[in-house]
């Protein structure tokens, strides 16, 4: 028999590898006035010059920079500004930890909740597991939850 992983596990592994290779950590925090303003300033472009390159008015660029700083800019507007400055818009949602760690942490919480209910019942019947057996069972349950995959991982336990 071969080891079959849930499709989600393969997707997590693939994305974790991509995130690691991309080294996006330095980009997690946007400059205080936004990327448009930071790059425009670094290139020495005035608002008027950027507006001209975009085929827009001065006031549109001022609004774009303000909307980026306020988190209300659209991806289309951000892309247009980037292209006008000979840049590319790279859009990504970057996990704070690896996706595998996030899934394992959640599987651990689900396993803990399940084992707490079982352990309580077993204690009432004077059949509680000792600490080592409980830990082994916990690890087996975590692996089983991860191998099973699917959206059940995110249901409330």
Overview of the molecule:
This protein has 157 residues and is mainly alpha-helical. The chain has two domains: 29-84, Orthogonal Bundle (434 Repressor (Amino-terminal Domain)); 99-154, no CATH class. The protein is built from seven helices and no strands. The chain has helices spanning 7-22, 35-43, 47-54, 58-69, 75-84, 99-124, 131-148. The protein is elongated.
Main β-sheet, in a few words? none
How many β-strand stretches?
A: 0
CATH class of the largest domain: Mainly Alpha
Report the total helices. 7
Query: According to CATH, what is the topology of the largest domain?
Result: 434 Repressor (Amino-terminal Domain)
Number of domains: 2
- Ranges with pLDDT <50 over ≥5 residues? none
Mean pLDDT: 85
What is the first-to-last residue Cα distance? Answer: 31 Å
The topology string of helices and strands comes to: HHHHHHH
Percentage of residues in helical conformation? 55-70%
- Return Rg in Å: 25 Å
The dominant shape is elongated
CATH architect. name of the largest domain: Orthogonal Bundle
Helix/sheet category: mainly alpha
Strand content: under 5%
Tags for this entry?
434 Repressor (Amino-terminal Domain), 63% helix, 2 domains, mainly alpha
């Amino acid at each position: 028999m071969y080891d079959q992983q849930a499709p989600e596990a393969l997707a997590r592994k693939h994305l974790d590898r991509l995130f690691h290779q991309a080294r996006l950590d330095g980009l997690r925090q946007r400059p205080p006035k936004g990327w448009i303003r930071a790059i425009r300033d670094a290139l020495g472009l005035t608002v008027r010059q950027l507006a001209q390159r975009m085929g827009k008015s001065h006031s549109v660029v001022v609004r774009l920079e303000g909307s980026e700083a306020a988190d209300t800019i659209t991806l289309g507007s951000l892309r247009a500004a980037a292209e006008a400055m000979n840049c590319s818009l790279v859009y990504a949602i970057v996990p704070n930890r690896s996706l595998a760690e996030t899934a394992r942490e959640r599987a651990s919480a689900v396993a803990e909740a399940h084992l707490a209910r079982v352990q309580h019942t077993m204690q009432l019947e004077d059949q509680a597991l000792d600490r080592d057996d409980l830990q082994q069972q916990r690890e087996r349950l975590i692996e089983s939850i991860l191998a099973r995959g699917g959206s059940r991982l995110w249901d409330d336990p």
